[in-house]
Write a structure and sequence with these properties.
Two copies of one chain form a homodimer. Chain A has about 300 residues and is mostly helical. Chain A has helices at about 10-25, 35-45, 50-65, 70-95, 110-115, 120-135, 145-155, 160-170, 180-205, 210-235, 240, 250, 255-260, 265-280, 290-300; strands at about 105, 110. The first copy, chain A, has a single domain, classed as Orthogonal Bundle (Farnesyl Diphosphate Synthase), CATH 1.10.600. In chain A, strands 1-2 form a two-stranded antiparallel sheet.
Chain lengths: ~300, ~300
């Protein structure tokens, strides 16, 4: 991937379209076996979204190997970007089920269990997980790096990452979490996969140990900032710009950064995290442009 | 793993106990994060079962490397055995949920969603999947072999393997499947993971291409035999020896090998598959003893 000179907004749309095309190509179709299941998997994964996680993979990748782009790395970044989007998609499908959040709409469309049925939605989510690991296992880079990438994704999505965060979230409804507890829950539920996206870009592009550290500092700050801004948007945005029902968390008495800190302090916290993320990137120089722009995009989307 | 001279029944119990101990050690506990989720995961995985899949991993491993046992291979076989049991356990947890089979008992104990709740059961299953891939990714053997093992497990458990077979099974209730369709469904739903278990043992032990072919022939025959015998047991066994309600498939009008072929022809078919499996093992010589014994065990358990 040669560093592009596109304006950020155009780059982001371009990356989203690109990963959508790769997902479309990599996912099994109706002719490849269980047609209804494959339909449901494609419905769950394809059809848009900002693809922030995929963008983080690409941005981290370009920050590490802009001097020596290679086809193997580019194609591996594609697979890694698909993998994080597949895991994200599976988590949404299961999260929307009646036994979890019982949501009937996502991005204005019927959720998978509404469009198909509960059993198919569950199996579609179940089958998206191994597909993510399969795509990573097929990356045409050094097997030792492939193994590292798989470890990263497995840990980020498992019981001490995303799935664990969802479990804590479930039990937190109506309870008074401390700021530390809230932070732990979000760093697992949302932060772990955002951090893994950045780390995967670095691993695939063969980042040095110092570069990986810089990426990790950036990713930890951004993972948290993402959730703080989500909480702000939940109380400030209207339904149209949010793409989901605003005020839902507050109505369900879920603890949020806004309920805990107040709106203004939450905004200051998000801004401090953005600054911390940018400082972590300093050693990477101009190649980290897309990562800086993503930090601005994630934090400033509430303005 | 040195080839043992234990009688088969003792070897099988020993392997089941061993993999149970390794699972217990490898699985996160209540102190490692979300306590209720980790409890549910342990409840789903630990506490017995014949561990046929783990036994297939070990039996294939010992068939390939009995001359030169190594600690790295032994510890990798342990991880591979855990991985197939984790995937099997997750599939049972999700299968038992109300939106699937709605089973309240498994091995005489309350199913996970009865003991905990539906959301926790779903998340426990979700989190067992990445744990399986994480254990494979940690195997201390050549990274290229680790990657092959992960590909095997991902394909066997995904939409063109186990999860896909479950989707086809769901849609087959009350419909008249042909023998070919029934075979496709079972080879995906049950066969794929049994075959992967055998193949994993071979990959981890560094099997040659010829040995892998022999293992594959064995595994395909045994994967199918396993289901044919399951169908036979569903009509011939009593509840106590079966560990679940007999006649359930027939009552739900699910197509089975018995309903399709009749009891006697189903028994002949299982025996023919056992013979085919044993023939495939011929090139492996005496080291394949445990695989031969497992073939007998799987097919002759209906007598």
């Amino acid at each position: 991937m040669t560093p592009s000179t596109q304006p950020f907004a155009q780059w982001l749309v371009d990356r989203a379209r690109h990963v959508e095309a790769v997902l479309d190509e990599q996912m099994p179709g109706a002719d490849d076996g269980p047609a209804r299941l494959h339909d449901a998997m494609r419905y769950a994964v394809l059809g848009g979204g900002k693809r922030v996680r995929a963008a983080l993979v690409y941005a981290a990748g370009v920050a590490c190997h802009a001097q020596a782009p290679s086809k193997a790395v580019d194609s591996s970044l594609d697979r890694a970007a698909c993998a994080v989007e597949l895991i994200h998609a599976y988590s949404l499908v299961h999260d929307d089920l009646p036994c979890m959040d019982n949501d009937v709409l996502r991005r204005g469309q019927p959720t998978v269990h509404v469009k198909y049925d509960e059993a198919t939605a569950m199996l579609a989510g179940d089958a998206l997980q191994p597909l993510a690991f399969e795509l990573l296992a097929e990356m045409p880079i050094a097997p030792a790096l492939v193994v590292q990438a798989i470890q990263l994704l497995a840990r980020a999505s498992g019981s001490q990452g995303m799935a664990g965060g969802q479990a804590i979230d479930l039990q937190s409804v109506g309870s008074a979490l401390s700021r530390d507890e809230l932070q732990t829950m979000h760093s697992m539920k949302t932060g772990a996969m955002l951090e893994a996206s950045v780390a995967l870009g670095g691993v695939v592009a063969g980042a040095s140990s110092a570069t990986r550290d810089a990426l990790e500092g950036y990713a930890q700050a951004m993972g948290l900032a993402f959730q703080v801004v989500d909480d702000i948007l939940d109380v400030t945005a209207d339904s149209a710009s949010l793409g989901k029902t605003p005020g839902k968390d507050a109505a369900e008495n879920k603890p949020t950064y806004v309920s805990l800190l107040g709106l203004e302090a939450a905004r200051e916290f998000a801004e401090a995290l953005r600054q911390a993320a940018l400082e972590s990137l300093a050693p990477l120089g101009p190649q980290a442009l897309r990562l800086r722009e993503l930090a601005d995009f994630i934090v400033l989307r509430d303005r």
